[in-house]
Model the fold of this input.
Amino acid sequence: MTKAGSLLPDPVKIAERFGLDNVQPIPGDASVRLYFRGKKQDKSIIVMLYPDASEENQTDLRAFLETGKMLAEQGIKVAKCYEANESCAYALLEDIGTQSFGDALREGSKAPKELYNMATQALTQMRDIKCEHLLQPYKQTNIYSNRRQLIDYYMTFKKGVHPGQACIDEFHALWNEIEKKLPPCPHGFVHGDYHLENLIFAKSEKSARRCAVIDHQDAFYGPSPYDLVNLLEDARTDVSADIRSAMIEIYTKNMSVEDKAAFMQWYRVLAAQFHSRVIGLFIKFSVEKNRDSYLVHIPRLQNYLSESLTYPVLAPLKEWFDKVKLDFDSISDLDGDHIRAAFK
Done:
């Protein structure tokens, strides 16, 4: 998937450049990266190609390679890298399959509980990756700082005017106070975008390795509940209450009563932070990039955030939303033109 206005490179030129046959473009993700599938000596190869070799793109590729190595060393299935060149910003990767866990869920080829169980088991393996001094800390990531997108985009849209920096500062101060009152949280390797579309069903593998992990370049060192929140409260997919409960039980199985209680408090707080960021992000996509396909998920995010606000640990946040009169009721005119008009 390319950025708006960009042109997809000619598959013939990709084939010539990398010595591949039968090259075809394949759908990408929300990044600038381009993907192609081709053949080389009867082996299927994925070309991951950046549009240019900027410092930012080289850094992204380096992070992809380094985090892939961490995951592989922990026994997590990731695509093998056959060849990579940071200065030219590309990598030739193993083709681990075409069916995402999201595809399998929609097609009904795998039972939901089986898919979520495999995904959760993979997360329990990731906890043991030693990465404290190798990855960026959570509070230094854009994921953490972009909680403010709820104010910048969602609140601005609902109110018809940007509330200003003082409101953003108050919002951040409130989060800081909530976090200070929480017990210590276990930290470790966090994928950062752990949902069903970033998990590929690797048919040639066995057991937990059938859950192959992609898009891991934005991994960070942070609170362990984050990826579980992303998996079980993903903006794109409804997850039944019984599956959510069962997966939390699997993940927390060996925790003491006190540790599980602390874990769940952080789970609730991280869920609210996650939904605050993403609900704003989807409106931002519409406003700044004319990408309206994500707007359909906003009601689900509103419901998630409303649910989070029922927990005592987030009572200060609910009180603040009441004070500034920001609600999470359904939006009747949830279309791109209406949203963009509100930001003019």
